[in-house]
Amino acid sequence: MSTAPFTPWILGLTGGIGSGKSAAAERFVELGVHLVDADQAARWVVEPGRPALASIVERFGPGVLLDDGQLDRGALRQLIFADPAQRQWLEQLLHPLIGQEIFSYLAKAETPYAVYVSPLLIESGQYQKTQRILVIDAPAELQVQRTLARDNTSPEQVQAILKAQLAREERLRHADDVVVNDRDLQALHDEIDRLHHFYLTLRGGQP
Ligand SMILES: CC(C)(COP(=O)(O)OP(=O)(O)OC[C@H]1O[C@@H](n2cnc3c(N)ncnc32)[C@H](O)[C@@H]1O)[C@@H](O)C(=O)NCCC(=O)NCCS
Ligand SMILES: Nc1ncnc2c1ncn2[C@@H]1O[C@H](COP(=O)(O)OP(=O)(O)OP(=O)(O)O)[C@@H](O)[C@H]1O
């Protein structure tokens, strides 16, 4: 008998900063779909006591820690989006660890399909482990506007993050499905509901 871990049918969900990935992901969860989020996994792998946090402090100094020993995410964000070499170092450290967390969690899926949401699904190559790719797309001005309204950050910082991500056209080239999220949240939910029914049909109701 095979002891290989169960691999579910995975929908990769991606989009640039502030495009509405998390809002789309929340809707999939409301529909009862098993979901795992790369941004969440990126938090788990740097919790106090995890070896990756020690490596980060060794490289960047104690200034990247808060008083309670947690990672100061704002401080690290400033450092890595100001210097591509530092960002690449951090990605090389964290992406394999994030990948391990993600795929062990996805293996627990008991729904006809599972969703893996990641801002860097294409850039990291992890899209190759998914069966289908859904891109949440929004015009850059809207991405910036929504991110500024959500986060305590500056327009310059959002532009630096946008620049570190794949160009919109390149991401769209990989898409099997696209939702243009330029209307209200109800319109986004309606699109996700429609796609959910389509994915269930594609899976033929298989567990
Ligand atoms: C720099 C960090 C500490 C900033 O944390 P913060 O809480 O401010 O942001 P959060 O993690 O929620 O990310 C917010 C958004 O920033 C963008 N972003 C994050 N990391 C990257 C990156 N390496 N390259 C491009 N965009 C990124 C994404 O759009 C993401 O959704 C954090 O983003 C991080 O650890 N990044 C490196 C790990 C990584 O590549 N994560 C992306 C998912 S695999
Ligand atoms: N259609 C919409 N109408 C109004 N607000 C929206 C819409 N879609 C998303 N938002 C809001 O815009 C902000 C950014 O959306 P969200 O957090 O889902 O983006 P994201 O792609 O996950 O971003 P990040 O890559 O930074 O994690 C959030 O505050 C969200 O509630």
From TrEMBL:
- According to its UniProt record, which protein family does this protein belong to? Belongs to the CoaE family.
| Catalytic activity, as annotated | 3'-dephospho-CoA + ATP = ADP + CoA + H(+)
Keyword Transferase present in the record's keywords: the answer is: yes
Alphabetically ordered keywords of this record: ATP-binding, Coenzyme A biosynthesis, Cytoplasm, Kinase, Nucleotide-binding, Transferase
Give binding positions for ATP: G18, S19, G20, K21, S22, A23
Protein name, as recorded: Dephospho-CoA kinase
Task: Name the source's superkingdom.
Answer: Bacteria
Q: What is the lineage of its organism?
A: Bacteria, Pseudomonadati, Pseudomonadota, Gammaproteobacteria, Pseudomonadales
| CDD domains with a match to the protein in the record | DPCK
GO terms of molecular function: dephospho-CoA kinase activity
Cellular location(s): Cytoplasm
Pathway membership of this protein? Cofactor biosynthesis; coenzyme A biosynthesis; CoA from (R)-pantothenate: step 5/5
**The protein's Enzyme Commission number:** 2.7.1.24
Keyword Nucleotide-binding belongs to the record: yes
Q: Enzyme class, one word? A: transferase
